[in-house]
Amino acid sequence: MPASPHQSGYFYAQQFNFINQENVGYAGLKPDSDSGSQSIFNAAFYSFGSGATSNDANCHDGADGGPGVSCEVQVKANYDHGYLLRIQNTEGTTWTGTLVDAVTGTETRIGSYTLPPGSEGIKGSQIGFVEYYPWNTGSHSCGSLPKTSVTFGAPTTSSSNSGSLEKPYEFGDCVGQVDFSTQQTADGYEVSVGF
Predict the structure, then answer these.
(1) Rounded to an integer, what distance in angstroms lies between the CA atom of residue 182 and that of residue 195?
(2) Would the pTM count as exceeding 0.90?
(3) How far apart are CA 42 and CA 85, in angstroms?
C-alpha cells in the first residue's frame, strides 16, 4: 500500500465466515499517522456477533458498537512492503490472526478469539473491501474522499487449495463519484479511489 495516506480513516479488509456460524469476521490493515519518522499502521482481527470470547491482551469485547471481539495491534511498518494476514486454527474453536511482512518474513501476532462450540473451518467464499470509516457516522461529500491505492491478493492456504480473486467493484452511496479504478497486477488487483 505505498500510495496509502499515512493517517487514520481507511480500512483495507477481508471478510470471512466460519462453518456453522452466521456472523462474519474481518482481518485487515488500518493506516495511521506517523510517529516521528516511523510509519505505523494497525492490524485488525475481528469477530462479529455473539458467542465469541477472548482473554487475549490485544483483544476486547465488542465489534463496531455491537457484540463480538476486536483484536488490534499497532505495528511499526514499511508501507512499501506487502503484507499477509494469516488466520489459523490454533486449538479447538480458537483462531489466531497474524500479520506477516511479505518482504522480511517478520510475524506479528494480532490476537486470538474462541468461537462457540460446533464452529468449524473457514467457508470458501466472501468479499474484501476498502472502507473509509469516518463516513460511517454523519453526512459526507463524495468529492472529499482522500486518495488511496491498495492491492489485494488472492487467498492461499497451507494445503494445495488456493483461492481465487474476482475483479473489484464499487458499492455504497458514492458509486461513480469517487474516481474508483482497478487494474490487475502480478500480485492481484490494485484498487484506487479518492482525490
Answers:
(1) 15
(2) yes
(3) 12
Instruction: Decide: 49 and 23 in contact? Cβ < 8 Å.
Output: yes
| Dihedral angle sign, alpha carbons of residues 186, 103, 79, 142 | positive
Measured torsion, CA atoms of residues 168, 44, 163, 169, in degrees rounded to the nearest 10: -10
Please write the tens of the pLDDT for every residue from 57-98: 999 999 988 999 999 999 999 999 999 999 999 999 999 999
- Of 3, 5, 38, 2, the closest CA to residue 134 belongs to 5
The 3-state DSSP class for residue 133 equals helix
For residues 172 and 174, what is the distance between their CA atoms, to the nearest angstrom?
A: 6
Per domain, the residue ranges of the chain are 10-141
Phi, psi of 27 (to 5 degrees): -135, 135
User: What beta strand segments (E) does 24-127 contain?
Assistant: 24-31, 40-48, 59-63, 66-76, 83-91, 94-101, 107-114
Residue 46: how many other CB atoms lie within 10 Å: 25
d(CA 170, CA 176): 8
Q: How is residue 8 written as a grid cell?
A: 487514520
